[in-house]
Every structure is written in structure tokens, then in C-alpha cells.
């Protein structure tokens, strides 16, 4: 199966991204995988703040490699290094009804949300990003796309574009890619909200042990627990939720000790920080090895782009023939 997925380089990846990357690592074992850093998509909301874009691209690649993506098993590249994405997006735009883009469920919601943050995204690029996403997927004739449930409308839009192209030009060129839904641990931020760099409530994948502790130390806990010996309520405690993910072997003991008032919040947080750091240590080590060899990182991107361009070029030749351009 040919798999495609990507991420926008908008900042440091946090530990919430690790479950996604672990799924990518599993997929690369038995499939032909294309993973790309979608810098053009980052511009749809960050067009006015590009000073750190190249740094973010580099950091994202190192995070991917640290998580275990293997450039020998996966094609890893930057979106803008394969210009065929833009050409297919342009050709798709010629026959895609405007109403299709306007009815994408997340479109109006995101405009309102970003507007509250002072961001004007009433742009052609933001309106058209689902079509660019469709081009990203279809140019590799991908069979499957690992997505979360919130991204299913975008994938269905992609399938509609594929069907319309095939119908208009009497071809079966484009497959209708299937959603590969995976169970991904949804980690809240240290304040209980959605984990996000913009909220300053994340724990970066690349965080040093001291930084992990500082983030865990600030986690909100059971508001009803005032003194160390007060009975705790782990079912409403954010720290306990993290223990369930990173400290499964001690979860029952931790739960009982909390309910019985035998462990305070500070030692409970310290134990959690130890477990998160143990989990992140191999990620940090792999990342550091790649970071120490920047020339190899450059080669990964160059080789990945060359392979991606070759595949995309073959697709575009068939697209041009079908459309008569």
C-alpha cells in the first residue's frame, strides 16, 4: 500500500505528536510511505511570520528522525521542493466548484477562531488549502492516509476531487484514498486545554530532562486537594491522566496512594517526570545523533525530494495527457 501524510512546520513538536509518529514508524515497516513537511500549508495561517520557517522545517525533520522514521524505508521531503504539487493544485482548481471549498466543515470555524486570535485568514490560500491537500495526496496516487477523525472531511473532499477528475476526463487515473484511522493518545496540555505551542502548555519532544520537569511541575492537579494527606481524586487529576499513559505499570499503586492521601502532588509529579524522561530518552539520543551530522540531514531532504519528484512527475505526465495540456 502506498501511504502519504504530512505535518505543518509551525513550531517545536510536542509529546502529543509522538503517538502519530509512532504510527508512521509502524506503517513504514510494510508499506511504501511518503512523509512530507508541508511548508506551503504553514503559510496559509503564517504568511506574515516566516522568519523561523526554515528553522522549524529543520527541527521537525530532526524530531521525525528522533521518533524513528527511517529515510531508507520512507520517502521524506519538503513540500515546496516538489513543484508538481503546485501544478496539480492549479489544474484541480480549474474544475473544483467554489461551493465545495466553502462547505468544508472546518473552514468557517477556523476563520472565526483565528479571527479571535487576531489572524486574518480570509485569503485565497486558506480557502483553497483542502484542494492543495488533495493535490498532495493524489499526486502520489496514495492508497491510504493516516488521519484523525477530525481530518475525515478533508479526506472525503480529496476523494470527491479524484472522482470528479476521473469522470470529467474519462479515466481511472486517481484512486480514492482510504482513511487509516489509528488509536492516538490525545494528550491535554499541562493546563488541561488542548496541547499547543501557542498556549504555552506543551511538553516538547526535544525537551531536556530539566525542561520536562518544569512543565510537569506546573500541571494542574485536583483542586479539592489542599494538604498532602487529603484524599485525592485521580479521576479528575491531569497528572494521573499522564500517569495512565507513561506509567502504566505503577498506575494502580499511584491511584490507591493518591486516594489514601499517602502521596503528595509534588512527589507524584516527580515520578511522572521521571517516566516521561525515560520514554523520551531514546528519542533524544536518536535526534542528537542526526543533529550532529547536518550534511546527512541535507542529503535526506535532497534524496527524498528527488524520489518524490520522480513519482509526482510520472503522475503529472498522465494528468496533462488526460486534460490535453
Describe this structure in words.
- The chain is mainly α and 325 residues long.
- The chain has two domains: 2-186 and 294-323, 3-Layer(aba) Sandwich (Rossmann fold); 207-285, Orthogonal Bundle (Tyrosyl-Transfer RNA Synthetase), CATH 1.10.240.
- The protein has 14 helices and five strands.
- The longest helix has 30 residues, at 294-323.
- The chain starts with a strand and ends with a helix.
- The relative contact order is 0.14.
Can you describe this structure in just a few lines?
This protein is mainly alpha-helical and 325 residues long.
Ordered list of secondary-structure elements with their pairings:
Elements lengths: L1 E6 L10 H11 L3 E6 L1 H8 L6 H15 L6 E5 L5 H10 L4 H5 L2 H12 L7 H4 L1 H10 L5 E4 L4 H17 L9 E4 L27 H9 L20 H9 L4 H9 L5 H27 L2 H30 L2
Parallel strand pairs: 1-2, 2-3, 4-5
Helix pairs in contact: 3-13, 4-8, 4-14, 8-9, 10-13, 11-13
Spell out the key features of this protein.
Rossmann fold, two-stranded parallel sheet, 325 residues, 2 domains, Tyrosyl-Transfer RNA Synthetase, mainly alpha, 14 helices
CA(first)-CA(last) distance: 30 Å
**Biggest sheet overview:** 3 strands, parallel
The dominant shape is elongated
Number of helices: 14
Helix content bin: 40-55%
Mean pLDDT across the residues is 94
CATH class of the largest domain: Alpha Beta
Helix/sheet category = mainly alpha
What series of H and E elements makes up the topology?
A: EHEHHEHHHHHEHEHHHHH
> Could you say what the CATH topology of the largest domain is called?
Rossmann fold
CATH-defined architecture of the largest domain: 3-Layer(aba) Sandwich
- Domain count: the total is 2
Number of E strands: 5
Taking pLDDT < 50 over at least 5 consecutive residues as the criterion, the unreliable ranges are none
**Biggest sheet, spatial arrangement of strands:** 1-2-3
Q: Give me the Rg, rounded.
A: 22 Å
The CATH superfamily of the largest domain is: HUPs
- Measured by DSSP, the beta-strand proportion falls in 5-15%
